[in-house]
Write a structure and sequence with these properties.
Elements (H helix, E strand, L loop, with lengths): L1 H71 L5 H8 L13 H5 L1 H13 L19 E5 L7 H6 L3 E6 L2 H11 L3 H4 L2 E5 L2 H7 L4 E7 L8 H10 L1 E12 L3 H14 L16 H9 L3 E7 L5 E8 L2
Parallel strand pairs: 1-2, 1-4, 2-3, 4-5
Antiparallel strand pairs: 5-7, 6-7
């Protein structure tokens, strides 16, 4: 009887010891499992956080680069793009929104023609004939529907017209195709001045930016890019409206609000450029400037000879 009880007690103790061993073992296992899970969670969380931070950094760099490029390396103003896109079908309408600009053509063309005739880049023989700009390569920046390109081509020039508005270029191409005598002398491109600098620097005998400066972003960059497109000895022609009280009254109050001969919102007085500002920027690019001012409407007319 005593031995039986002893054996029963030992068995019970063994069972309890084994049970406790299993429990302790399970506790250790669970602790290890919990520890492993915590480590994996922390590692996964750390990787996720690093991934998110990395993506945010890439996005920030991209946004920063895009913003910088748009601000410092682009001359295109999205609002101006939208404005001229809505007017694209009116370039050649004799009573449309660009009728005044067309009437100014005789003055603008004579400025370019006579200015180039005075330079050594134009052929002396050609200047005596009906095609005084024969063979000269001229770039018209912001050509719109081609109001300047066509008469320049009729004077013998090989003209490239660029404009960032697709609809303007389509109108220009269609109108030019109606005159086979000049259609082979004009090339129209959807492009900006900075794109042209990358593709054809120092290529043109003359570059024209007529009534464009007051519609672009980053005027200094625009001027610099325009100069970079002119070959040594060539000319840059700029026409724009001076920033005076008289230009505000005439170009905005009367022309836009009163007579409505140009659409409202065409001009922003704050974007008009005084002649002194233009001259300063051009001289920084080693250009020799001559200024011709129309006192009636106060536009600036500059011929710039590029020496380097």
């Amino acid at each position: 009887m005593h031995n039986s009880r002893s054996r029963g007690g030992k068995r019970k103790k063994n069972i309890e010891a084994t049970y406790r061993l299993h429990i302790d073992s399970n506790k250790e296992t669970l602790t290890e499992i919990r520890r492993d899970m915590q480590m994996k969670f922390l590692q996964t969380s750390a990787r996720s956080i690093l991934t998110v931070v990395s993506r945010c950094c890439r996005m920030a760099r991209k946004l920063s680069t895009t913003s910088y490029t748009r601000q410092m390396k682009s001359t295109i103003n999205p609002e101006e793009l939208h404005k001229f896109r809505s007017l694209s079908q009116k370039w050649w309408d004799s009573r449309g929104d660009f009728a005044v600009l067309r009437r100014m053509n005789s003055l603008r063309i004579s400025l370019i023609r006579d200015g180039l005739k005075r330079t050594s880049i134009a052929s002396s023989e050609a200047t005596l004939g009906p095609r005084p700009l024969d063979g000269l390569k001229i770039l018209d920046i912001g050509c719109g529907g081609g109001l300047l390109c066509e008469p320049l081509a009729r004077l013998g020039a090989n003209v490239t017209g660029i404009d960032p508005v697709v609809e303007n270029i389509e109108v220009a191409k269609q109108h030019c195709a109606q005159d086979p005598q000049i259609s082979g002398q004009i090339t129209y491109l959807v492009s900006s001045v900075e794109e042209q600098v990358r593709n054809q620097p120092s290529y043109y005998d003359a570059v024209v930016a007529s009534e464009v400066v007051e519609h672009v972003d980053n005027v200094e960059f625009f001027i610099s890019s325009a100069v970079d497109l002119v070959k040594k000895g060539g000319s840059l022609f700029l026409t724009t409206v001076n920033r005076t009280w008289l230009s505000y009254v005439l170009a905005i109050c009367i022309a836009e609000w009163g007579l409505r001969i140009v659409p409202k919102g065409t001009h922003e007085w704050s974007k008009f450029v005084p002649p002194a500002d233009l001259q300063e920027q051009l001289e920084l690019k080693n250009c020799r400037c001559s200024v011709d001012t129309w006192h009636a409407l106060q536009p600036n007319h500059k011929q710039v000879d590029v020496d380097s």
